[in-house]
Specification:
533 residues; alpha+beta; 4-stranded antiparallel beta sheet
Length: 533
C-alpha cells in the first residue's frame, strides 16, 4: 500500500475537509441520541439486575399514561367469587366487583419494582389456592394474611416465565424452554418431557441471530459484558468528542487575549488522544453493533424476518432442547383430551407429556410478539388474541372467525398455514380479554383500551384516577422505549418506525468518517517520520 505524497491536491484537501465536517457536525448533532442508544443498551443487557427500578408513567409522554385500561394494564381476569373479579396486567393485580367498581390493589408481599409486578397469568388450583407469575417470579396467595408470597427455588432454571395454569390436581408453570408441573402442596416442580415436534427445524431465525449478536448474548454473559464495554466506550467517545469540538473556541479566544490556555489545552489534548485511540481500536465492534442494530427494525428487518439459518456453533442458540426459547403458552382441551402448546413456531397438540407434539394447521393469526389471549369460552370454542387481532377458533372443525365481526378468516391467514404468522396490526393490537364482568366479554386494546365486545358503542367502566396516578413503568421497559425511539414519537411522528435505521445509518457514517480522518492523519505522520529517517 502506497502512502500519499506530501503534496496534497486541492481536491484531496476538500475531500478530507468533507470527512472531518461530517464526523464533527453530524456527530455533534447526534450526541444525545448516541448517548441514549449506548446507556439504554447497557441496561437492557441486565434486566434481572434492575427489576426493582421503575418510573412514574406520568413523567413520560401521554401515550404511556394509563387511560381506559390501555397499555396492557389488564391482560386477563379471574373470577374469585360471585361478587369479585381479580384483574392483572402490567400495573399489577387489583380486585373489583363484577362491574369493575370499587377497585383496590392486591399486591402486598410482591417484590418491589414494576417488572416484578407485571403479571402475565393467574391460576386457581382445584383446592382453591391462587398462583401468579411475573416475568421472573412465581407467587402464591396467602388468603389468611391477604398477601402474596414468592415461591423461591421451585424451578430449576432462571428463565423468564410465560404461563401458569391448573389442570386437575396439578399446577403447570411454563418458561421459555420448559414446562414444569407440581402436585399439592405445589413446592416441588419437575420438568415435563416434551419430545421433538413433528415439524422440528434445528435452524433459528436470522433475526434472532442478529439480535443476540447485537446484545452480545450470542455468547452469554461474557458476550454481554463485552458489548457493555463497547457501550461505555461509546459514551467516552461522545464525551471526548464534545470536549474536542467545544473547547476549540475558548482556547482560541484565550490565545487571542493573551490569557493562559494551558489547562484547557491539556484537557483538549487528552480527550483528542483517547478519542482517536479508542475509536480506532474498537472500530470493528462499533460498526458491528451499529449494523446489527439497523437490521432489528424496519426497513432492513423485513427481508430477514422469515429467514432461517444454522445456529452459531458454541453459542447460546445451540441447544439439545428442541424447545429452547420457543415456548409461550399452554392449555388443556378437555373435549379433545389433549394439550395445546403455543410456541414461536406455531400451535401444537399432543395427548400427554412424553408424546410427540404435532403442529396444527388451522390456527388463527398470531403476532410474532406472541399470544396475549387464549381462553376457552365454551365446548370447542376458544378466543385467541394478539397484536395481530382477536379471533374465534372452533376446534371441532378448525374454523377461524374474526371475533368482532364473526366473518370467517381468509384461507391463507393462519399462523400455521402457508403465509406464516400474523404481523402486528395498527388497528387492533389486542393485549387482554375478560369474560368475567357483568357487562359481558371485554376486549382490551393496547392503544385504545377497553371495549365491550357485544356492545361496541357502550363504554366500559371508567378507569379510576388512582389507577393512572399510581401507574409506573419498569426502568427496563423505559430503556427499551428509549433505545428503539418510541419515546420520541411526539416529534418524530411517522418516522418513529425508521428511527433505528436512520439513526444507525448516520452513526455508521460518523464512525466511518472518524476512522478515515484518523487513518489519513496517521499515514501522513508515518510518511513524514520515514522521510526524516
Amino acid at each position: 500500500m502506497s502512502f500519499p505524497n506530501s503534496k496534497t491536491t486541492p481536491r484531496r484537501k476538500e475531500k478530507a475537509r468533507t470527512w472531518r465536517r461530517l464526523h464533527k457536525w453530524v456527530g455533534l448533532v447526534l450526541t444525545f441520541f448516541i448517548l441514549a442508544f449506548a446507556l439504554s443498551g447497557v441496561f437492557l443487557n441486565h434486566r434481572t439486575a434492575i427489576t426493582r427500578w421503575d418510573l412514574p408513567r406520568r413523567w413520560l409522554p401521554q401515550q404511556y399514561v394509563y387511560e381506559n385500561w390501555n397499555n396492557g394494564a389488564v391482560v386477563g381476569t379471574l373470577r374469585m367469587g360471585p361478587d369479585s373479579v381479580m384483574l392483572y396486567g402490567s400495573n399489577g393485580i387489583w380486585v373489583a366487583d363484577t362491574f369493575c367498581r370499587g377497585l383496590r390493589p392486591c399486591m402486598d408481599g410482591m417484590r418491589p419494582g414494576t417488572d416484578n409486578r407485571n403479571i402475565r397469568a393467574v391460576a386457581a388450583t382445584s383446592d382453591g389456592q391462587l398462583f401468579a407469575i411475573s416475568t421472573y417470579s412465581l407467587y402464591r396467595f396467602d388468603r389468611t394474611a391477604y398477601r402474596w408470597r414468592e415461591v423461591e427455588g421451585a424451578l430449576t432454571d432462571d428463565e423468564a416465565l410465560t404461563d401458569v395454569l391448573s389442570v386437575g390436581d396439578r399446577l403447570y408453570v411454563v418458561t421459555r424452554s420448559n414446562v414444569y408441573a407440581a402436585a399439592a402442596p405445589y413446592t416441588r416442580f419437575t420438568a415435563q418431557p416434551l419430545p421433538t415436534p413433528d415439524d422440528y427445524d434445528p435452524r433459528v431465525s436470522l433475526f434472532k441471530t442478529i439480535w443476540v449478536t447485537h446484545s452480545g448474548d450470542l455468547f452469554g454473559l461474557p458476550g454481554r459484558l463485552l458489548i457493555d464495554v463497547v457501550g461505555i466506550i461509546v459514551v467516552v467517545l461522545c464525551l471526548t468528542g464534545l470536549v474536542v469540538t467545544l473547547f476549540e473556541i475558548p482556547i482560541r479566544l484565550r490565545k487571542k487575549r493573551g490569557d493562559p490556555a494551558l489547562p484547557l489545552r491539556r484537557t483538549w489534548t487528552f480527550s483528542f488522544v483517547w478519542h482517536n485511540r479508542l475509536g480506532s481500536l474498537f472500530i470493528v465492534l462499533l460498526l458491528l453493533i451499529v449494523v446489527t442494530g439497523m437490521f432489528l427494525r424496519p426497513p432492513l428487518l423485513i427481508p430477514i424476518a422469515r429467514t432461517q439459518v444454522k445456529p452459531v456453533p458454541g453459542s447460546t442458540l445451540q441447544s439439545d432442547n428442541p424447545w429452547h426459547d420457543r415456548l409461550r403458552r399452554l392449555r388443556y382441551d378437555a373435549e379433545g383430551r389433549r394439550w395445546l402448546l403455543a410456541a414461536s413456531s406455531g400451535i401444537y397438540a399432543f395427548p400427554a407429556f412424553g408424546e410427540q407434539p404435532k403442529k396444527l394447521d388451522n390456527t388463527p393469526p398470531v403476532s410474532v410478539m406472541g399470544l396475549n389471549v387464549w381462553q376457552q369460552t365454551g365446548p370447542n370454542q376458544w378466543v385467541v388474541g394478539s397484536f395481530s387481532g382477536i379471533y374465534g377458533w372452533d376446534l371441532s372443525d378448525g374454523s377461524v372467525t374474526d371475533y368482532d365481526t364473526g366473518l370467517p378468516l381468509d384461507e391463507m391467514g393462519g399462523y400455521g398455514r402457508r403465509g406464516g404468522g400474523g404481523r402486528p396490526t395498527f388497528g387492533n393490537p389486542v393485549s387482554g380479554f375478560s369474560s368475567d364482568f357483568a357487562q359481558g366479554p371485554v376486549v382490551f386494546d393496547y392503544g385504545r383500551g377497553a371495549r365491550l365486545a357485544n356492545y361496541p358503542d357502550m363504554p366500559f367502566e371508567s378507569m379510576p384516577e388512582v389507577f393512572a396516578r399510581d401507574g409506573r413503568i419498569s426502568f427496563w421497559h423505559f430503556c427499551l422505549e428509549l433505545h428503539v425511539g418510541r419515546l420520541y414519537r411526539s416529534f418524530l411522528f411517522a418516522f418513529t418506525d425508521f428511527y433505528v435505521f436512520l439513526g444507525g445509518l448516520l452513526m455508521f457514517l460518523v464512525v466511518l468518517s472518524g476512522y478515515i480522518v484518523y487513518r489519513r492523519k496517521y499515514r501522513r505522520k508515518k510518511s513524514r517520520r520515514k522521510k526524516r529517517e
